[in-house]
């Protein structure tokens, strides 16, 4: 999916119902569904150790992204309270991001990995490819964790229907938006 088909999380930009562009799913029990994922960037560098090139991964960064073309709402249920609950899914991912980045960094920090390939240029190309796969595998684990946390949020708030619980989360998300 191209970058232009996503909305990156920011303090200033709240979701609108117009951001939910997919067809609603009549078979779903949900009145709205937000697709939120982590986009990642990184730097791969290499060192020559004898005749072998070893690569290392640095500067891993995550961006929390909302996917409008995969997210939907039943228009008959598109209330401001439900929108706030869906915004909470987006905010929750941003709230979890610092810890996830820290954990991903810890997997790669200080480690050098062997490369494949017959000559230095090919080894550098494979280092880029292999590092991307390694990070993708780590991010996939954390997206599963995010999914668990989202389900927990839905259960605790009964999809935003338990006002007191939703308000507790809204206050936590407001602090995220009000922080530096």
List keywords for this structure.
180 residues, alpha+beta, two-stranded antiparallel ribbon, 3 helices, 6 strands, elongated
The outline comes out as elongated
**Strand and helix order:** EEEEEHEHH
Counting structural domains, the number is 1
Give me the count of strands. 6
Strand pairing plus helix content: what structural class? alpha+beta
Tally of helical segments: 3
Rg of Cα set: 20 Å
Oligomer class: single chain
Can you summarize this structure?
It comes from Candidatus Nitrosarchaeum limnium BG20. By secondary structure, this protein is α+β, with helices and mostly antiparallel strands.
Please describe what this structure looks like.
The chain is α+β, with helices and mostly antiparallel strands and 180 residues long. The chain has one domain. 46% of the residues lie in helices and 21% in strands. The protein contains three helices and six strands, in the order E-E-E-E-E-H-E-H-H. Strands 1, 3, 4 and 6 form a four-stranded antiparallel beta sheet that branches. A two-stranded antiparallel sheet has the order 2-5. A hairpin with a 2-residue loop joins strand 3 and strand 4. Helix 1 (80-108) packs antiparallel against helix 2. The longest helix has 38 residues, at 120-157. The chain is elongated and about 65 Å long. The two termini are 30 Å apart. This is DUF922 domain-containing protein. It comes from Candidatus Nitrosarchaeum limnium BG20.
